[in-house]
Structures are given as C-alpha cells and as structure tokens.
Design a protein that fits this description.
The protein has 18 helices and 14 strands. It is of the alpha/beta class and 448 residues long. The strands form four sheets. A seven-stranded mixed sheet has the order 4-10-9-8-7-5-6, sandwiched between helices. Strands 11-14-13 form a three-stranded antiparallel sheet. Bound molecules: D-serine (DSN).
Length: 448
Amino acid sequence: MEWFYKIRERDQEVFMHLKRELERQRTGLEMIPSENFTSLAVMQALGSIFTNKYSEGYPGKRYYGGNEFVDMVEGLAVSRAKRLFNVPHANVQPYSGSPANLAVYLALCKPGDTIMGQNLTDGGHLTHGWKTSVTGQLFRSVPYHVTKEGIINIEEAKQLADENKPRLIWIGSTAYPRRLPFREFAEIAEGCGAYLAADISHISGLVIGGAHESPVAYADIVTTTTHKTLRGPRGAIIMATDKGLRKDPELGEKIDKTIFPGMQGGPHDHVTAAIAIALEEASKPDFIEYAVQIVKNSKALAKGLMEKGVNLVTGGSDNHLILADLTNMGAGMGLFAQEALDAAGITVNKNTIPGEPFSPFYPSGIRLGTPAITTRGMKEPEMLVISGFIAGALQEIKGYSMPNSKEERQPYIRGFKSYIQGNERLRSIRSSVSELCSRFPLYPDLEA
Ligand code: DSN
C-alpha cells in the first residue's frame, strides 16, 4: 500500500525526509529503550479525521458541539485503560508524560511543598524534581539515589522521607535496569503520610504483560506514557488507584480538573483514538508474549555484552533496559559510543551513570533496550549477534577520551566524527545490521 502518496503529491521535501526515515528505521536497530514501532492501525488513527476536532472537557461534558463520536472514542480509551491496569479512574488526555507528571504535582501539591524522586543521574526522570525542570524549581526537591551497586537505595529513601516529610514521592525511572520496589516505597510513603505516584512510562507494557509487577496495589497515582513498551501513540495516561481514592475520594476529579481546564486546552482526539487502539492491542494474548520476550531479550543482550567485556550498571537487566558504564574506556565516552553505534546502524542514547564522573552533557554511559527490536520479532539468538555488533563497534572508539578542557572538546569531537565516517569496520557492521534487519521486516506492507 502506498501510504504517503498525498504527501508525495503535495510536499516533495517532507516526503523525501519521510521516505529516508522509513528506510533508516527499517535498516537499523532501534535500541533506545523508550522507543517502539506502533501498529499501522495506531498510525492510521493518528492520521485520521479526529485531528480536526476540538473537544475541551470530558465525555458528556464538552464545551463544543459535535463531540458525540469523540465521546465514544475517549470513553473506549478510558474504559480500556481502567480494565487493563485495573484502576477505577483514568485520564487519557495528557499531551505526553511530562505534562501528565506536572498535572500530578499541581493536583496534589502547592508550590514550595517537599517532593521526592529518584535523582536524574541515578536513573530518575527530569520531572521527578530535577533542578533544571520546573518540578525542581516550583517544589522543594529531595532526591534519593542508588547504592554503589546501582540499586535504588531504599534505606536512604526512607530516612530522607522520615526527615523531610514530603507531600509526594515518585517511584519510576528512565534509566534503571532493575525492578522497581513498589511495595517498599508504599511503606515509605505511608510512614510519612506522602502520596505515592508510580511513573511507569518505561515499563507499562511490561506491567500489562505481567513481565513486571504492577504498582496499582501500592501507589495512589500511576502515570504512564503510551508510546514506550505500551507501543501506542505519543501520549500519556494518569490513573488514580483504589488506594488513592481511599486516601482522597476526590483524587480523580482533582486530576481531571488539573488537566482541563488547569493545564491543557483541547485534547488531541486523534491521539486518544490511537491510545484506544493500542490498549486494545495490548489486551491480546500475543502482547503478553511480547512483554515477556522484551525481558528475555534484554537479559540475553546483557549477558552477551558482559561476556564481551562491556560493563553494565548493576551487572545486568530485569526489564527492557540496559545501562552500559564506559568509564573503563575513557572520559565522557557516551557520545563517542552513541556516534560510533549510529555509524554502525544501531541507535542508542548517551546517558549518565550513577555517580556520573564526567558531565550530564558528555556522560559516561549509553542506554539501550529491547522494546523496538522485540516488536520486529527478534529473539535471544539475535541478541547474541547484536551484542557482538555493539562490542565490535565499541572496540573502534578505544583510545578516545573527552578532553577536560571545554575549549578542546568541539575540535576533538569534529576529529572523532570524521574518523568514524571513514571507519571500515563500522561500515561493515552496518551492512551486517542491515542484513539482520532485512530478515525481520518492518512495516512490510508500506511503500513509500
Ligand atoms: N525521553 C524519555 C526517555 O527516553 O526515557 C523520558 O522522557
């Protein structure tokens, strides 16, 4: 099927970039752990006539006319979210994860209140109180950390909560390769009277598939983006749990009012339709297999990498994500690794590691994961092959190390980039990557 023909007819420039991006996604390994490939049905909803509509308000209570079908679709998305996650209240309107989290703060806290979240360089998210995020500026942020082994430091979190009496505690991460300790954090939150919000953006697909414990019995509020392991469109859901509603029966209304009219205008109805479809897809038995395979693949990839001498934070993975610590290769190696892997057709992102020894902008690690390559159908044998590609590409950056002097960095990086562009070994890995990808076709029905 020729999918983009109207764009081809209307706008050759955008069409050309779209075509090249499709080719990039098809021929490379997408290993950023927060990315995935949605179904064509989800994409069709995103490109549908629901993009034409304004629908401020909620089903049955809209400010504009003509919303009878939007109401149905939003109702479907909400009821599917409630059923799949087993929660009594869901709001599917947040534009994405960061606004969803901000809405949680604004529903529960006043500026200046104390909040706690996992420190950014320890694997937490910007919106859990990091200093450059508005959440770290509006609220008094007391971050907790991981231990020197890279595991969430529950003892420290408990002590900080007892001392600081936060109003809200976050449990949830963007660069944490292990299971999230929901039960322990529920005890900490109960001990100091805080609300507990679980941000399961990264792992919500694993939670639905039973490949990670659900936070629903432990947290008062659960937030998730819909485009990561959940494999839907870019969007988010905020849920109130039974526990949360017992604590505050108005929690659901507070969240809804904060999203609209508090923070947002019209919901993105085309995204809502796509969320409804993604949730339906995630309710099928093959999604459980998918979620389980993501974790099997991550474990297999971690093992393969470690056997080839790559150091991993915590020495492995329990979820979809791996954090490689490259400090033994040189300073600030994340950028060099990301660029070399890009040249080899493998997309990852540079990432800080716990106790980051260099800088957040030139961090010492890379973060990679298996959700997207598992969607393509790859399994453990392919993970072993991929670990060889990655270890091989990392060999090619040996000897590089980020200069300490800021003035020297840009010329050094330029020199590095020209070196990798001409690197034959990376080129050869790229062609092996492309051959592997051709055996797991992506969107085979699409022509561009
Ligand atoms: N940007 C997302 C991630 O990559 O984890 C989090 O917001």
